Amino acid sequence: MSYQQQGNDAILAQQADRESSARSYPRHLPLAIREAQGTVVTDMDGTEYYDCLAGAGTLALGHNHPRVVEAVERVLDADRPLHTLDISTPAKERFVDSLLASLPDEFAERARVQFCSPAGTDAVEAALKLVRTATGNRSILGFQGAYHGMTDGSLALMGDTEVKSSVGGTQHDVHHLPFPYEYRCPFGIGGDAGHEVASEYVENLLDDAESGITDPAGVILEPVQGEGGAVPAPDPWLREIRRITRERDVPLVVDEIQAGLGRTGATYAFEHAGITPDVVTLSKAIGGGLPLAVVVYDEALDVWEPGAHAGTFRGNQLAMAAGEATIDYVIEHDIADHAAEMGDRLRTALTETAAGVDAIGDVRGRGLLLGVEFVDPDADWQGAGPHAPDGDRAEAVQAACFDRGLIVELGGRDSATVRFLPPLTISAVEVDEVASIFDAAVEAVVGAADQPGVAA
Q1: What does the pLDDT read at residue 451?
Q2: Confidence band (pLDDT; 50, 70, 90) for 452?
Q3: InterPro entries recorded for this chain (predicted)?
Q4: CA distance 77 to 305
Q5: For residue 219, how many C-alpha atoms fall within 13 Å in the half-sphere facing its CB?
């Protein structure tokens, strides 16, 4: 029997027998996908699901978008090269044209592009090497709650100490600063005062000769912490961090790997704050669903020697064609505006579900990068303030969503945040269906928990 004729159970059993114990998604999303179109995937048993994971935000235009499919087919039909290292081709030059045209003029006019090996974490590794080479310094300032990838240097930037402590070699002179998390303010004050203190903390640390931190090579941040639980940075805070770093000649690296290309309601998330970073890391959506990663940075930092950074698969021509098609479509069809509108619609519905549900502590995010944080209403977090994150309840809601035909991801502290990353092309009707399924899942889980003797 061919694989196309097998059901979910047979394929999942074989996967468990042959693949690494490090596999993650199949443990909570037990399906094998037969086909996919737009926002919908169909498993081997014929069950359809709304996909609000979308390749961890990679599929900006959804599954098998005609514009992307046509771009890939043109490359294959014309006998174009598929892999060229960093040797240029017309496809590559067109991709760079589209990429630079999508960026704000003040950044694009001074930009250089470094193609990396294909994952987002490779772009982060390249960015770290870039700023360390350009400044001659080593220390990197990152932020609590951050996620920048799973390779060694990127892992050192992660806020989650449990993941880092499980492997060696992650001591890279990285210092983690407080991120202005409104719901769980690191200073316990929240509001404007919370992010103002957070930026003042950074400024004081950089100016304090007794801080214990040597002159930094760079500061790296996510405008919206994605895996960290859909936590958006306040625009005034971003503007202050940009001022602080610029006045001290510290390169500012903005990680747009998940938030970039329309997902937050702007083409790039840093545009909400009106800032111009020194370095931007990009992957996921810019490859149109295929592996591609780049670092775009100010020409003043371009002091690398030839071959100083490389990667065998940085010449992925299919990804460049798919990426060009995706970038152009996002710009031509105002997809960022659509994402903002659909994000507002979904967030409103999620907030309505959360109303009166003590087990939901926060609904947040930006555009179509949204999160709902589940909490234990009977337990305080760190002895005060908001309730403790409840990863078990979030996992139960994720499972209840899956049973009803909705794929969502978890993230944040204790994996207690249900995350929504649907294709940016999702329709209003689909948003309403997603919201309705989530509402039913919450009712099923929370209702069961509220009944004596019934487990969630």
Answers
A1: 45
A2: very low
A3: Aminotrans_3, Aminotrans_3_PPA_site, Dat, PyrdxlP-dep_Trfase, PyrdxlP-dep_Trfase_major, PyrdxlP-dep_Trfase_small
A4: 37
A5: 28
What is the C-alpha to C-alpha distance for residues 288 and 261, in angstroms, rounded to an integer?
Answer: 10
- For residues 194 and 234, the answer to whether their CB atoms sit within 8 Å is no
Label residue 246 exposed, middle or buried (CB < 10 Å: 0-12, 13-18, 19+).
middle
Which of 117, 83, 125 lies closest to 311, judged by CA? 117
What residue type is assigned to position 371 of the chain?
A: G
pLDDT tens digits, one per residue of 367-376: 999 999 999 9
**DSSP string computed for 269-315:** GGGGGT---SEEEE-GGGGTTS---EEEEEGGG--PPTTSS--GGGG
% of the chain exceeding 90 in pLDDT: 79
Both tokens of 138, joined, read: 């080593």
Q: What angle do CA 22, 24, 29 make, to 5 degrees?
A: 155
Question: Tokens 């002179």 — which residue?
Answer: 173
- The per-residue DSSP string of 143-211 comes to ETT----SSHHHHHT-S-HHHHHTSS---SSEEEE----STT-TTS--HHHHHHHHHHHHHHHHH-TTS
Backbone angles phi, psi at 251, to 5 degrees: -60, 135
List the domains of the chain with CATH numbers. Answer: 3-64+335-450 (3.90.1150.10), 68-332 (3.40.640.10)
Q: How many angstroms from the chain centroid is the CA of residue 393?
A: 23
Cβ-based neighbours of 317, under 8 Å, separated by 6 or more:
75, 80, 81, 82, 83, 84, 89, 91, 92
Per-residue pLDDT band at 212 (split at 50, 70, 90): confident
